[in-house]
TrEMBL record:
Biased composition (Polar residues): 1-20
Gene name of the record: DLT1
Transmembrane as UniProt keyword: yes
Location relative to the cell: Membrane
Protein name per Swiss-Prot or TrEMBL: Defect at low temperature protein 1
Functional summary from the UniProt entry: Required for growth under high-pressure and low-temperature conditions.
Family to which this protein belongs: Belongs to the DLT1 family.
Membrane topology recorded in Swiss-Prot or TrEMBL: Multi-pass membrane protein
GO CC, any one term: membrane
Membrane spanning residue stretches: 59-78, 90-111
Lineage per the UniProt record: Eukaryota, Fungi, Dikarya, Basidiomycota, Agaricomycotina
Statement: the UniProt record of this protein carries the keyword Cytoplasm: no
């Protein structure tokens, strides 16, 4: 009994963190590996950056060098002129006048350059976007040129190539601003007046035209033209698709052929009826 009480103590002792972790993990699971630290990229100096650094530093270095030389030469010449007792005042005057002239010329030159640069900048368009190798690295400029060409090709392909609305004539032709369906149907009164002027049938009927063309003795040529004309008229009346330029031109030719044929036939009949 005493041994049993000694083996089980109350309250139970808390398990260690390692044993608790081992109990919680399933037997086949693996511990997540720590993510490797990302190494920071070192920015190595490039030839373009080095040349840019040399360009800017050399500019200010030469300005400083010129300023030192001017001050040194002025100091040396002034000291030499001051020590010459015979023409001391004249030498100092000439030296000061020379440096004043040099300063004025330098200021005028710098001011002219500033004005010229401002004038050049004014001529540049305001929405200027640097895209050339002069303003950008070569790889960036090449990428911009490639994407620009790709965009231009896509824009060209997506544009309308015909420039024509369905059922209407193309701009710049004789069919400009003409509706083909309206034009085709407007030729029916002309054909009725030419082939069947005395017919009492409904104006919408094409049967008088077919009968009149069959009555003409010309080996059936007019009949063929009128049949094709009637088919185009039916499509223009009841077809869902708009007539195109070919239909309008076909109707125009049929009307011209019928009018000219009947006119020639009437003249021949008049010539035959005249007494010789």
């Amino acid at each position: 009994m005493s041994n049993h009480l000694q083996s089980h103590t109350y309250p139970p002792l808390p398990a260690s963190s390692s044993s608790r972790r081992n109990l919680e993990l399933p037997p086949n699971s693996t511990r997540p590996k720590p993510k490797p630290k990302r190494k920071r990229k070192r920015f190595l100096p490039t030839s373009r950056g080095f040349s840019s650094f040399l360009y800017h530093t050399s500019f200010y270095l030469f300005i400083l060098l010129i300023a030192v030389l001017l001050v040194g030469s002025a100091w040396g010449l002034g000291d030499q002129a001051f020590r010459n007792d015979d023409q001391k005042k004249w030498n100092i005057f000439v030296l000061v006048a020379a440096y004043v002239a040099l300063g004025i010329i330098s200021v005028l030159h710098v001011w002219s350059r500033v004005l010229s640069i401002k004038r050049i900048l004014r001529t540049m368009p305001k929405p200027y976007i640097p895209t050339k190798t002069v303003d950008l690295p070569k790889t960036v400029a090449k990428h911009i040129a490639t994407e620009y060409s790709r965009t231009a090709v896509i824009a060209h392909i997506s544009q309308a190539t015909t420039g024509q609305q369905e059922g209407w004539g193309r701009p710049g032709t004789k069919w400009e601003d003409k509706h083909f369906r309206t034009y085709i149907l407007s030729t029916i009164p002309i054909m009725r007046q030419t082939l069947a002027p005395t017919s009492d049938v409904s104006p919408l009927s094409l049967q008088p035209l077919l009968d009149a063309s069959s009555a003409i003795k010309d080996n059936g040529a007019i009949r063929l033209f009128v049949n094709s004309y009637a088919k185009i008229i039916e499509r223009a009346r009841y077809g869902r698709k708009e007539p195109d330029q070919a239909d309008a031109e076909a109707v125009e030719k049929v009307v011209e052929v019928v009018l000219l044929t009947l006119e020639v036939k009437r003249r021949r009949e008049k010539d035959k009826s005249k007494p010789q």
